[in-house]
Design a protein that fits this description.
8-stranded parallel barrel; 19 helices
């Protein structure tokens, strides 16, 4: 087997698979394309237009944008003459044609298509693709993982032998997707090893996340030497998505030393940009969420004050987080208050620090764990006898999240306001809504006068009819 990960190309499908999760307007698709280019993705997949549902006018600018930046554009469509002929409208590096191969799909989705008919359809589609001169022709055997999971090795072996005919017809790669997310990492590893030994074509992997294994399955497949791996930003896709770009690139880079050509140091930036652009929030358990950089347990806090890499991987500290935040809670370490005092140039005793920790604990218990930063700062002033600097509060405890509901005056150019707000570093997302508000701005609010809310008031004075602010932890 080749060296783990050697020769693997990442294909990003945010602009194809991701569109099954959320369809973006053209201006946002182009910005997503820009993010992918900035990250250094070499191969990007886009979907074919299907008039009148989608149009060439929505697809062509994206294809042209990616081509202009030297990115290999792959267009995805059905193994059907109409789709292959439609590919011809675009300047593409390659194409991907798909058809379901499992019995359950052939019987219930493809109206009883036989295995022989399925093979003939794929061969005809590949031969037609070859006539257009594409350098890359991928055949996707939809739901093929089911054959392996259910033990139908004869059917699987037949399909793997069939890849020789596909190769002769012009195919350059076969994709073996886990369409229903049926595999665990150990199964995925053995599946790829089994198929690589029997396939006449290089293999692409595409895992769905129904049990939460898509990213892990992709990592082990790269370690098994798969030639292409499919990912999206945040793992977005149909149902609960496919493999997450970060969750594949970061561990392979940090833990295995495998460079897939993606800028590791720009992933956190890319995810923040994508979240702001689309309004899709990172879930708390994602490795790049704000919670991922928040340390809650007191004994953990005491440790990270000395050596953050004792609890947080060094690769993440180096590439993703400039610093960590410490959650004020009943579990806080008294050592945090010793450090706060030191940062403020004040010396306090261990006993005073323990008293502060006890007071903070009582405050949070009284308010069911919900305390404003201003309230916390006031308590520390009373207990410790000095003002904790705002900069120290932000550095240790982070910022509060605000939901700002803005009602705009009629005839205001909402699009330009949204575009402006998405450039603000403290803004996480901006959504246009209908009803009592026109915009919902989600962002981080610092203590003091120069915060997000005050900046919004100053910037859009005379434009905003009404503004409501909701603060959460």
């Amino acid at each position: 087997m080749p060296e783990a990960g050697s020769g693997t190309v990442l294909l990003d499908s945010t602009l194809r698979e991701g569109e099954l999760y959320r369809v973006l307007p053209l201006r946002k698709k182009l910005r997503v394309a820009g993010i992918l280019a900035e990250l250094g993705l070499k191969r990007v997949e886009v979907t074919l237009d299907y008039p009148p549902k989608t149009t060439e006018a929505e697809v062509r600018p994206v294809v042209d944008y990616l081509n202009d930046r030297g990115i290999e554009v792959v267009m995805h469509g059905r193994a059907h003459r109409s789709d292959v002929e439609a590919f011809g409208k675009y300047e593409l590096h390659g194409v991907a044609v798909y058809l379901a191969v499992s019995r359950i799909h052939r019987e219930h989705k493809l109206r009883g298509m036989t295995e022989e008919e399925m093979r003939l359809r794929l061969l005809e589609a590949v031969e037609l693709c070859r006539s257009y001169g594409y350098r890359y022709i991928r055949v996707t055997l939809e739901d093929v993982s089911r054959l392996y999971v259910e033990g139908n090795r004869d059917e699987l072996d037949g399909l793997l032998a069939f890849t020789e005919e596909l190769r002769s017809a012009g195919a350059t790669m076969v994709s073996l997707p886990d369409t229903s997310g049926l595999m665990t990492p150990s199964q995925a590893s053995s599946f790829i090893r089994y198929c690589r030994e029997r396939s006449a074509l290089p293999i692409a992997c595409h895992y769905h996340n129904d049990y939460g294994f898509a990213s892990a399955n992709t990592v082990v497949s790269v370690l098994e030497g798969v030639e292409e791996a499919h990912v999206t930003l945040m793992g977005i896709g149909d149902r609960n998505g496919i493999a997450d770009l970060y969750e594949v690139v970061a561990p392979l880079s940090d833990l295995h030393g495998i460079d897939l050509g993606v800028r590791r140091d720009r992933l956190a930036w890319a995810y923040a940009e994508f979240s702001r652009l689309t309004g899709i929030r990172l879930p708390w358990r994602h490795p790049l969420s704000s919670d991922a950089r928040t340390v809650r347990a007191g004994v953990h806090q005491a440790m990270v004050l000395k050596r953050p890499d004792g609890y947080v991987p060094a690769g993440k500290l180096r590439n993703d987080f400039e610093d960590l935040t410490l959650a004020p809670s009943p579990l806080m370490s008294h050592k945090v208050f010793l450090e706060l005092a030191k940062r403020a140039g004040v010396k306090i005793t261990e006993e005073e620090a323990r008293k502060a920790a006890e007071q903070v604990s009582q405050l949070y218990l009284m308010h069911n764990g919900r305390v404003r930063s201003s309230e916390l700062r006031e308590l520390l002033r009373n207990v410790l006898g000095f003002d904790v600097p705002e900069e120290a509060m932000r550095a240790y405890f982070g910022l509060e999240r605000a939901y700002v509901l803005m009602k705009l005056r009629p005839q205001v150019d909402v699009t330009s306001i949204v575009e402006d707000l998405l450039t603000w570093p403290e803004v996480e997302s901006v959504d246009e809504v209908y009803g009592d508000a026109d915009l919902v701005v989600v962002g981080k609010v610092a203590i003091g006068p120069d915060n997000l809310v005050e900046r919004l008031r100053r910037r859009y004075q005379g434009v905003v009819e009404e503004m409501k602010v909701l603060i959460t932890d």
